[in-house]
Amino acid sequence: MRQLPRLWEESEQDTRYVQYFIERLSLDMPSCGGECSHWRPLIIQAMHQEVAVRQGVVALSAVMQERLAYGSLGIHGFDAPSRSGRYLLGLKKYGRALSSLQKLVRDMGSDRYLIQVALLCGIICIWFEILVRDYLAALGHLEMCLKIVLKEGPFGNIDSEIQGAYARMDMQASLYVGIRAPVTVPGEMSPVPYVFDSFNQAETCLMEEYARVVHLFRNAASFYRNHQPGCVPLELVAYTQTLQARLELWKSAFGYSYSCQKAQGSPQTSARASLLLIQYYIALVTASTSLYAEETLYDQFLYAFKRILLLARSSNACHESAAATSLVGVPMKMGVIYPLYFVATRCRDSAVRQEAIDLLSSAPYPDVVWEAPVLASVARRAKEIEELGLDCNQPIPEFRRLHSLGWAIDYESRQVRVEFHRRSNGMDGEWDEWEECLSW
């Protein structure tokens, strides 16, 4: 270790915010021999060397404290009557961080160190925008950083952990926004290992497979589902079967690896395993149904939906006690709120989907951009529409099932405008589309 030169004048208040950020990172790191992502110590290192990262950390820390203090936060403002000095300080520091980052990007060229600093600062900026719920701004930062990752990554100019962090954020954006496919999909399909050496390796492998599934779903699959049902090319069918087979290989390798580690595991290890398995089941169901328009295909995955709920309950039980000390809005975590929403809208077993809605309603904190109260209200209304006039155990016919749900959230009025899509006249019929405004 060496004493780094003091590159800027900093107030005692700024120093406290920096220390707070380091403490939050430490609290969120797994213990008992668990693994942590390498981008965290890289951010701490860059924070002590680059003013852009330092200013971004102060801004992020101030807004993070404000978010924890108020619990709820509107876009560029809080639910409280007036903005606090802490929030205004965060905005001021964030503006300076953006100016420093712009200069850094102009000067970085192909310098590996500066490229990585810019991407670490990008994580801070995305994180900040998520905390103030300006998701479009966060998406804009992400798109610019992904261009750097795609351009410089193949030349070895970016740490693998930083690339992995951006791959996870790329997946978050693809799942949430719904208008884009992930861009960090690996070109070649490497063999799935027989056994994983670590959770990080297993998670990286699953995210690669999941990215391929989402890429298929957002591109070719959506066309055949919505515009030409029943006309799927055989090569596309074969590709989806390959994806399903690779997911099964992952499940086998992970099951064996986890059984070896379970004896020496910790509650954190168990929770990480539960979250990974939840993502596996979502990826498997999506891959198996992505090419076909019939919503009744989801009925054959009732076992997977039940398993997701079981894993979500065990994961929540572990995390609920640590919710007060976890990082707020960290943009790399793949949590349980989206999978619960997936079950609540794709499973048509009334009891199972109601349990998913109940779990959403009681979720103690958001998963990055996924906010449980909003999605619970959307899922609850979808259930009401599909089950209207039916007995509790009566199957929902295809013509009553909703195919897609789009929404736009207004945080100030606490309302969400939802677009419902249904085919009442069969798979080759016209779309029935309408909008409703829901409150939460």
UniProtKB/TrEMBL annotation:
A single MF term (Gene Ontology): DNA binding
Keyword tags: DNA-binding, Membrane, Metal-binding, Nucleus, Transcription, Transcription regulation, Transmembrane, Transmembrane helix, Zinc
Domain of life of the organism encoding this protein: Eukaryota
Transmembrane segments: 113-132
Classification via InterPro entries: Fun_TF (IPR021858), Transcr_Regulatory_Proteins (IPR052360)
Entry-linked PANTHER family: ASPERCRYPTIN BIOSYNTHESIS CLUSTER-SPECIFIC TRANSCRIPTION REGULATOR ATNN-RELATED, ZN(II)2CYS6 TRANSCRIPTION FACTOR (EUROFUNG)
Protein known as: Transcription factor domain-containing protein
Organism: Aspergillus turcosus
